[in-house]
């Protein structure tokens, strides 16, 4: 029993990203499932991790179960995109690390960066739109909760016995 080596966080993020990309082909774009799968090979255009930055929040202790979540973090470039990653500890019920990944689309046959394939760009743009809508919905709900708490505080503090 001890803390998990920091290199493991990179492996968790990498494995989860591969699953995330494959799931795009299964759930978001089944018509292009083979194209999504091929992104994980060195045949044609694939994805390369150009850089990863990890902010460790606390050391995960073995044994633990973790969950890893990815989201597209900024507008797409011509041949690159970025992902924000959250690694959660089940045992501690909190964020163990946050990562930022820069990903490049790469043409293995040409040995050079490649434009983001159109099928991928279409799904990512739709995903980013949904992310923004969901974030706005969450912000609206938090504002409503804050307003209700404020009303409750005013009603309690406005009582004669207070």
From TrEMBL:
<protein>
    <recommendedName>
        <fullName>Thioesterase/thiol ester dehydrase-isomerase</fullName>
    </recommendedName>
</protein>
<dbReference type="GO" id="GO:0047617">
    <property type="term" value="F:fatty acyl-CoA hydrolase activity"/>
</dbReference>
<keyword id="KW-0175">Coiled coil</keyword>
<dbReference type="Pfam" id="PF13279">
    <property type="entry name" value="4HBT_2"/>
</dbReference>
<dbReference type="InterPro" id="IPR050563">
    <property type="entry name" value="4-hydroxybenzoyl-CoA_TE"/>
</dbReference>
<dbReference type="InterPro" id="IPR029069">
    <property type="entry name" value="HotDog_dom_sf"/>
</dbReference>
<feature type="coiled-coil region">
    <location>
        <begin position="128"/>
        <end position="155"/>
    </location>
</feature>
């Amino acid at each position: 029993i001890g803390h998990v080596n920091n290199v493991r966080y990179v492996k968790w993020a990498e494995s989860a990203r591969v699953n995330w990309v494959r799931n795009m082909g299964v759930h978001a774009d089944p018509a292009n499932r083979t194209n999504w799968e091929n992104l994980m090979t060195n045949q044609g255009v694939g994805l390369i991790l150009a850089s990863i930055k990890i902010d460790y929040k606390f050391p995960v202790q073995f044994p633990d179960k973790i969950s890893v979540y990815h989201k597209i973090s900024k507008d797409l470039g011509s041949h690159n995109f970025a992902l924000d990653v959250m690694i959660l500890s089940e045992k501690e019920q909190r964020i163990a690390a946050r990562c930022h990944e820069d990903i490049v689309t790469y043409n293995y046959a040409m040995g050079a960066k490649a434009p983001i394939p159109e099928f991928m760009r279409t799904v990512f743009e739709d995903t980013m739109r949904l992310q923004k809508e969901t974030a706005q919905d969450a912000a609206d709900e938090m504002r409503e909760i804050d307003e209700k708490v404020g009303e409750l505080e005013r009603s309690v503090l406005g009582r004669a016995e207070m």
